[in-house]
């Protein structure tokens, strides 16, 4: 991790907001945007991990952290507005990273489980982007987070794959809606990414072999592979990109 070496001068001093920034890909996003000299704000519900991340970062301008349950749309939008206000009423980059890919059997799916899952994986993508766009006074970059799971027709997680497929449509529509205001909207689509959560909950030797057998590239991807795409999409180097889904999966689909 932290092997990324590219520097994007256009990110220096930009205000970047990240959801789910305490662990996994989110923590890697926070660390690497700090390394780009960006002003970083992030939210999560895991205070212990967030505080541990803050304590290990050596930054002249340390990130600002908010505890927030993204299922509460009013709280989510309030935090985004507060974060923008704390940085001169400006937000330049918004990354909707937070998600939960919990497995479930289709015949055991309930409306309550479905609604809760959508309130984590889809609804915050919509209303987080709405609040972020309001704070982007000088244009900006909104980055949604998809998944190759629905492209691979993965069973056992229908509420998750549905939400991730929907995010692709959301991204294309928002790009058209917000483009005239100078706001670029794109989606990063991770594949099988090695994170502590994945290692603890999902990965078995059999599944590890399956990933590598199915990928074109014969190494496991980690969070920095996703972050590298996020840095580029957030920077002015990606000024011509909007409404696109950028797959980072080692060629698994």
In a few lines, what is going on in this structure?
This protein has helices at 24-35, 47-56, 73-86, 111-121, 123-135, 158-178, 196-201, 205-214, 223-234; strands at residues 15-19, 39-44, 64-67, 93-95, 140-145, 183-190, 193-194, 221-222, 245-248. By secondary structure, it is α/β, with parallel strands linked by helices.
Question: What layout of secondary structure does this protein have?
Answer:
Layout: E1 15-19, H1 24-35, E2 39-44, H2 47-56, E3 64-67, H3 73-86, E4 93-95, H4 111-121, H5 123-135, E5 140-145, H6 158-178, E6 183-190, E7 193-194, H7 196-201, H8 205-214, E8 221-222, H9 223-234, E9 245-248
Radius of gyration over C-alpha positions, nearest whole angstrom: 17 Å
Gap from first CA to last CA: 24 Å
- Give a quick account of the main beta sheet: strands, pairing sense, barrel closure: 7 strands, parallel
- Placed side by side, the strands forming the largest sheet appear as 3-2-1-4-5-6-9
Give the uncertain stretches in residue-range form. Answer: none
In helices, the fraction of residues equals: 40-55%
